[in-house]
Each structure stands twice: as structure tokens, then as C-alpha cells.
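Example record

One chain of 44 residues, shown exactly as stored in the release files.
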Amino acid sequence: MGKGDKKTKRGKIHRGTSGARRKKIKKKTRPEEKINIDKKVKTK
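Predicted C-alpha cells for this chain:
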């Protein structure tokens, strides 16, 4: 069980895939992206 094994974490790292042993890291949204700057009310 090592780099060639599909079901181990080391094997997933070697192949560059994800799965039950190695989850994908979800990208966190920044607060700036939640608030749309373009929609702000412009003063005259």
C-alpha cells in the first residue's frame, strides 16, 4: 500500500485526485465578494 494504491491518501496525492480519503478543499468566499461594490448608491 503506497503510491500506486488508489484507495490510500498517499496514492491520491500521487495521482492528483480526490475522494473519500482526500477531500477537496473548498474555497472560502471573502466578505468583499459577498457585498457588490457596483450596486452602492452614488451621491451627487
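Notes: The first helix runs from residue 9 to 15.
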